[in-house]
Amino acid sequence: MARVVRKQVRLLPCDSERLFPGQLLNGEVISAYLRLLERRNAMDHNLPHVLALDSYFFTVLKRSGHERARGHHRDQYLWDYEKILVPVHEELADVGHWWLLVVEPRKETISAYDSLKGRNHKPAMDLLREYLKKEEMRAKTEARSWCLYGERSCPSQDNLVDCGVFLCAIAGAICGGREAKELRVDGREFRRQMAKELREDSVTENKSSQPELFPGEEPDWSFEDLAKELDQLTDPTKWSLILPAEDETPEVIGVLQEGWTR
Prior knowledge:
There is one protein chain. By secondary structure, the protein is an alpha/beta fold. Helix content is 33%, strand content 15%. It is built from eight helices and nine strands. It has helices spanning 13-16, 27-42, 57-64, 66-70, 122-139, 163-175, 187-200, 223-230, and strands at residues 8-9, 50-52, 83-92, 95-104, 109-113, 147-149, 239-240, 242-243, 255-256. The strands form three sheets. Strands 2-3-4-5-6 form a five-stranded mixed beta sheet, with helices on both faces. Strands 1-7 form a two-stranded parallel sheet. The chain has a two-stranded antiparallel ribbon with strand order 8-9. A hairpin with a 2-residue loop joins β3 (83-92) and β4.
């Protein structure tokens, strides 16, 4: 089956600055990185066929319901994909928190990957399962017996700002056919790696070969170098825009316009 390669998501300077250490990643950066993983997999048939839903999908589903949410993938047939990535944003302790849901239609599973341990993911998973059941009915496909896995093994964050970084690292492992539990993530180094990959529109395949940073060890790159990389993330010929959705609630500040991304 032919795989559609969608354009990358465009980042604005105010978005790319979120890749600096100490900053919480926003939805645009997460959408851009997950789309990069989707694009890489679409061009390599040795890797799973992946659909990366944008960072606003789940928020719209929770606040506005099924019909509004399905606009975020209206041109993608969900059941063609082996894995569907669903980033989830929640308010937690006065700051935002990101974690990941992964749907595997062929295995009939929905799995939660959260770098902040001990949280209850069942309400979100139940909501997504009900959404998928409605999509099955709409597509007139077989009803699946969805199995929920509330907390898959994955690395843990050690601060309150690297949740989005860990989400992207976990998604990268899953899209590459690896186990998330095998990951060792250094938030500072992975931020720099993300900037490089987004700039080059290419995923570094062998991240495990990179030297690890240990407490007290200085990295061999500077934040000035990172700033130069971030300045190169806004080539308008390569990116699709994130635009405000006219019919969305004020709380949802944007939505990927899928019609722009082919």
